[in-house]
Amino acid sequence: MSHNCKKCDQCKIDKLPCQPCIQERYQKEYENWSSGDKKLDKLIKFVRPSLVNTLPFLEWIPHEKIEDIRHLGKIGVCSTILMATWVDGYIVRWNHDEKKWHRRGRMTVILKTINHSDNISDDFLAGLEAYFKCASPHLTRYFGITQNPITYDYAIVMEYAENGDLRTYIQNNKDKLYWRRKLDILRNIIAGLEVIHVTGMTHRDLHIGNILQFKDLLYPSRISDFGLSKQAIGEGTVQVSDYIAPEVLNKKPYTNASDIYSFAMILWEVGTGEKPHANLSYNDELALQIKYDQRPEIPKEIPECYANLIKQCWDMDPEKRPTVLEIKEKIMRWQSVLGWFSTEESYRDYETRQFEKSDNEHPPLESQKPSTVDDYFELSNNTDDELTNETDDELSNDTDDELSSETDDGLSNNDGNHELPDGKEILYLALF
Fold first, then answer.
1. How many other C-beta atoms are found inside a 10 Å radius of the C-beta of residue 41?
2. Where is this region: Disordered (predicted)?
3. In 294-358, which ranges are E strands?
């Protein structure tokens, strides 16, 4: 049934993004469009509602709309990572007055180029289809596809994480991360992994470098590389890493429990602030350590309940590891009792008082300890100045002041604002 904008309350207000309107107009715009590649057309021409009620689609982004391209590095042998500026920015809503898309405007993006991809493979297509099924605010967003006119390599255009990956973020903020903040990071990660598992899939390459940090109060930590890790690493290759489950190293099938093992290593690194197995190189020695149930030592200052969760998640027997839902419920319970700052209840509860004790006896930086909601917000949104200055300058160039705070709301039914300077009580409800 065709969407009637004249009867739609959101379309009437015009400033509000309307999902049916976006879907219908987008597909109509690409109805007669073709890239010349049938596989690519399947990716570009349709909007695919995901199970978490978002409307993900991949635009065709002309390469001339990509400027200031800078090389960042390579992943494996098949993928190159670039930083660039997208001149137009992503679609926010349909402008009924001007009869055109209202877009975000100039923004920094990441290009993940799949080398030698002038012909799109079935695996590449399957990886992106997997992303569509799981698309949510907990996963790094893919905006579209572009093609280098010289090499003919295709690249995925995705959002840029202002605060880098989680390992970098922890190292830059190690002296400021109290347990409340650490648990908030972990809750975001496990919520994203839950979306992946609920849709019947596994990540298969979950590690701290694939968790990206954003200047976003609701979704600061997001899982990246889902659906593309197989192509980036190379067909049939198993990376020897401290985040790979022992059963996978033993050539057994990858399961949801294998992702849980990887999450255990994230728990360990977030809790300690250190890199696991730092004294070992990524080779056969490390693989043997993992296969024979050798795990990093858990420091005594780590809360006992948290240490127990780590041990459960990296259990040698995959069947004994908890599910994502069980882990999420445990973390959220800790958060709900701890609240924003110390209370009688947080000290009375057997488990949460372990976090209070750890922060009191081993404080990261006493002068930074949150004692009010405002202190917590200031700390949770802390970023590296060099990383944020560039992004702040871009945000100030938004073409529509009234829409400067609009983000992904045009593509989801999330009622929470990503910037809530005067509505912290709303965010509190969203978190807990």
1. 15
2. 352-423
3. none
CATH number 1.10.510.10 given to 166-387: yes
Residues of the chain with CATH 1.10.510.10: 166-387
Q: In sequence order, which residues have a C-beta less than 8 Å from that of residue 394 and are 6 or more positions away?
A: 106, 107, 108
Answer yes or no: are the C-beta atoms of 121 and 107 closer than 8 Å. Answer: no
* Tokens read off for 355: 């976090």
CB 335 within 8 A of CB 187: yes
Residues of the chain with CATH 3.30.200.20: 5-160
Token digits for 165? 């990956």
Q: Which two tokens stand for residue 197?
A: 């598992």
Model pLDDT for residues 378-426, shown as the tens digit of each residue: 555 554 444 344 434 433 344 444 333 333 333 333 333 333 333 333 3
Residue indicated by tokens 């350590």: 289
Burial class of residue 100, CB neighbours in 10 A (0-12, 13-18, 19+)? exposed
The CATH H-level superfamily of 5-160 is: Phosphorylase Kinase; domain 1 (3.30.200.20)
Q: Look up tokens 């849980």; give the residue.
A: 260
Host H or E run for residue 136: none
Pairing of β 66-75 and β 79-86: antiparallel
Question: What's the CA gap between 355 and 332, in Å, rounded?
Answer: 14
What DSSP string describes 234-250? -TT-----TTS-HHHHT
Beta strands in 87-201 (DSSP E): 91-95, 100-103, 107-114, 142-147, 154-159
Per-residue CA distances from 408 to 96, 141, 235 (Å)? 19, 9, 33
The 10s digit of each residue's pLDDT in 265-279 is: 999 999 999 988 777
Residues in the chain: 432
